[in-house]
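Hi F.,

I've been meaning to write this up properly since the lab meeting, where we talked about keeping a consistent format for the predictions we share between groups. The idea is simple: the sequence comes first, exactly as it goes in, then the structure tokens exactly as they come out, then a line or two of notes. No screenshots and no reformatting. I'm using this chain as the first example so we have something concrete to point to.
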Amino acid sequence: MNNYLNIMFAGTPEFSVPTLLALNSDYCKVTHVLTQPDKKSGRGMKNSYSPVKKIAVSLNIPILQPTTLKDIDIYEVLRACNADILIVVAYGLIIPKRVLDLFPMGCYNVHASLLPRWRGAAPIHRSIENGDKRTGVTIMKVVEKLDAGPMLVSKSIDLDNSMTTGEVTKSLAKIGAILMRQIVFSFQQKEKISATEQNESLVTYAEKINKSEAKLNMSHTPEIILRKINSLNPSPGASIIFRDKILKIWRANLIEDRDGSKQISIGELYTYNEELILKLENGVIQIMELQLEGKNRIDANSFIRGYSITKIEKIN
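Output, unedited:
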């Protein structure tokens, strides 16, 4: 097809990359990429490209990295790009109405939840933390109000108690890319696409993850603690204090309470039948993968061999 859609793409993290790649096709072209400014990272505090910028550079797509979209200067730059449509995937900056109005075919977003549930910054984290049985992706029209636009299409996946934020993010990124590619193709074909307004009475908000949430609360049930561990994997990681150092717990399992010993304190690690177990106020969980401050991630068996962990020989 010769009639390309000129797409401006706005995204920043790894979640955005599959959609960016999917939109470079035989019927449309990403003419410009918006991504957040480079951040300094590493020991040398060198500028680090976002995952989206890395891909855009490899595809020779012009890149824009404003700190805000509210200034008149960036508005004029965007207007001069003459894009037909704006596709947004986890961009991270507020898009003013006058910028939204620049695109004759509109602005559309890949959102990682089944809207109107979990509007906001951390929908995957919060769905796992909450114990939702399913989550998914919604393609919606971008409006001024956060994640409140009419919905074009959605697709769900089932969740279980072993799935982490990292794993679900990868799955939903692929699904979102497929859905958005289909939507853009329909626009290119001048097909009419129906949109459904969100039910405001069903709205929940996924607040941004704060590092202060990482410390596990031993008074919570094993089920709640396991969901917390999974929701904070791969970042920032759920943690406890072990011998005055931060110990991040990356993976754990629910098991029956095997601790009848009064010598084990709440919050303490011990072994029973070669399993690494964390005692809680109302039960136990089995630790499978963990990381001591300043060290690499290791499995439970390696941790047991490397540290003198209290061993319970039998249940009292």
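Notes:
The helical segments are 17-22, 51-58, 72-81, 97-100, 123-130, 165-188, 222-231, 300-306.
Residues 165-188 form the longest helix (24 residues).

If this format works for you, I'll send the rest the same way.

G.
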